[in-house]
User: Which sequence fits this backbone?
């Protein structure tokens, strides 16, 4: 009938007119969704970067102060190969020989003091010898190690031992503290009149004594680092203490 034909034409025309509209709305929805996804994926890393930057700028790390000084600190390089046992034995013997020689070389510029030694009972533990280059012994190494371990253990300084960079900076900080403690102890020994009053020894000899003690302390620090990095056998601190005890026993036996 004509009524059915008219309704068919109307539905066909409405279908033709409505299809592009649906396609356009779907494309617009798809475009909006894609834009929203791209905006979300773009802003998300920026938010992470801002959060990370704020976290890094907010947390002050003490070890970052050591980075500029790492290039001037004396250092023993890590071995790039496996050190054989004979070579380890050789380096250990050389280190102990240098330590024993320094224990017998007297300090230049000091005055002979026949008073009692105030550190007599501590010299066995500190591997030191009075009036020689090994006057300070291993006390700077032990003191700096205890201070750094205390600061790291109490979370006063932030150290991540799983990171190679943090381990290197922690070792450099410990070495720097050891050198500063060596200088402080050398100045304290001279100023306290351990080698005679300043008016008797003079300013020149006082500075020379401090320099001798300082460089001897650096030698001990480097020898200990040499043995700890795998060139020798055991720890330098333990070997120096044992060597000092054996030396005292041999010298006092005759």
Assistant:
């Amino acid at each position: 009938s004509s009524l059915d034909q008219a309704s068919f034409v109307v539905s066909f025309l409405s279908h033709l007119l409505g299809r592009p509209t649906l396609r356009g709305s779907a494309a617009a929805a798809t475009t909006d969704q894609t834009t929203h996804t791209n905006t979300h994926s773009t802003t998300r890393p920026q938010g992470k970067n801002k959060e990370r930057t704020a976290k890094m700028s907010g947390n002050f790390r003490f070890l970052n102060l050591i980075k500029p000084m790492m290039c001037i600190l004396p250092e023993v390089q890590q071995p790039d190969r496996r050190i054989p046992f004979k070579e380890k034995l050789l380096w250990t013997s050389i280190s102990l020989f240098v330590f024993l020689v320094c224990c017998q070389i007297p300090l230049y510029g000091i005055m002979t003091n026949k008073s009692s030694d105030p550190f007599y009972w501590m010299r066995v533990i500190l591997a030191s010898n009075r009036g020689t280059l090994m006057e300070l012994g291993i006390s700077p190494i032990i003191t700096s190690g205890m201070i750094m371990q205390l600061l790291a253990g109490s979370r006063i300084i932030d150290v991540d031992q799983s990171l190679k960079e943090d381990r290197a900076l922690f070792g450099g900080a410990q070495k720097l503290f050891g050198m500063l403690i060596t200088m402080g102890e050398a100045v304290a020994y001279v100023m306290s009149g351990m080698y005679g009053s300043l008016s008797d020894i003079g300013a020149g000899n006082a500075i020379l004594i401090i320099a001798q003690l300082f460089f001897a302390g650096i030698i001990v620090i480097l020898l200990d680092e040499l043995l700890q990095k795998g060139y020798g056998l055991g720890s330098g601190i333990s070997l120096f203490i044992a060597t000092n005890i054996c030396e005292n026993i041999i010298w006092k036996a005759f």
About this structure: The longest helix spans residues 2-58. The chain has seven helices and no strands. The two ends are 139 Å apart (CA to CA).
